[in-house]
Design goal:
- By secondary structure, the chain is an alpha/beta fold.
- Helices cover 39% and strands 17% of the residues.
- The protein has 14 helices and 16 strands.
- Strand 1 and strand 2 form a beta hairpin.
- The protein starts with a helix and ends with a helix.
- The model has no long low-confidence stretch (mean pLDDT 96).
- The structure holds pyridoxal-5'-phosphate.
- The site of pyridoxal-5'-phosphate has 15 residues, from helix 6.
Length: 441
Amino acid sequence: MSRLEKHLADGATGNADWQARKEAAFSRAQSNMAPVYIERARNAEMWDIEGRRYIDFASGIAVCSTGHANPGVTAAVQAQLQRFSHTAFGITPYTSAVELAEKLNELAPGSTPKKTMLVTTGAEAVENSVKIARAHTRRRGVIAFYGGFHGRTLLAMGLTGKVTPYKNMFGPFPGEIYHAPFPVGYHGISTQDSLDALDKLFKADIAPADVAAIIVEPVQGEGGFYPAPDEFLRALRQLCDAHGIVLIADEIQSGFARTGKFFACEYAGIEPDLMTVAKGVAGGFPLAAVVGKAAIMDAPLPGGLGGTYAGSPLGCAAALAVIDIIAGEKLLERANRIGVLFANRLSRMQAKFPAVIGDVRAKRGAMVAMELVKNGQADQPDPDLTRDLVNRAWQNGLILLSCGTRGNVIRFLPALTISDELAEEGIDIVEQCLATLLGPG
Ligand SMILES: Cc1ncc(COP(=O)(O)O)c(C=O)c1O
């Protein structure tokens, strides 16, 4: 019996039935953007249980960068599955995890010798990066940025600089977390403004000598797809060096070829002390890592880091395949070409709809965004139009994601293996949906 036949035998006939069952069975807090139940997905396309096709500009939130059901990833995971699925790396390890750690150490920017630790999710990687930084510095404070997103566990949430819907009603959060403004030129916050705010924070809230780590996304993801200016990342590097603070680059969304470099912090030419990696690293399998300078990574005591599923064999097999695919299919170059395609199309769209497309951000490979506003004004966000566009898009066969602290950014995260034709077809849908929503004139 096929999955679809089973769905039908269970009494459900389509997406609406399953959505009703889902709403009855799940906490309302675990909501879904589109009431669309996926039956099959290949590369940058998905099909739902009613046979409807979708172009995927979300890639499972920047995870399936090598495309859905990539044959190389699937074969590697199937081969691993035949051998064993789990032994617990902390009990009886396996060679694939060691090979993966060696590769991650090589790929991490900078010449300082690196070491790795593997976990399962991005939030876990973030939590562990803070633990490692605290063990290394024996200090307590952590500085993060407004608009940053670092995950949904309590420490990661505490670091996150976006309240709704993530933080409402969940406090108190762990202490000793401080937030500073992230530089966003489009909103009038310069690198100097952010550095001045850090200086004030050091005077008003916590001495730099008590700060264990500064955590920053080289391109803010959930916060609105704002690339950190190169000079800002370089200034943070200098600040951390001056005060013995651990600089953590959260590359969970921006890493693994998404931006046209292996890691987005390479644009600024900096070497972070620690880097968090997840999402695209394992092409759809749950795997995450902290990769960093060996001396810092070795600060916690033996046994101080780990977890039952940490570095799952299936995730390791997938990640080794993903690394080969990125090299073999030249996906760094491809990410940049996709970025150019989107940049051209979106700037033409902006010229057509100047009052609503306030900003197009397409200078970081295939991590592209447009910000929707009213009257062409950066300070007049249009979250309603953004939500309507996302909804209209899936109704017309395109999976789009929004983001931004004001809820007014459309982010584009296509698979790096998407064809130009499919990317163009998806952008056509965006344009048609926007034109329909805005109406004549
Ligand atoms: C930059 C960043 N950090 C951390 C996370 C959390 O990762 P996960 O959802 O795998 O816990 C995310 C997820 O969106 C992210 O984008």
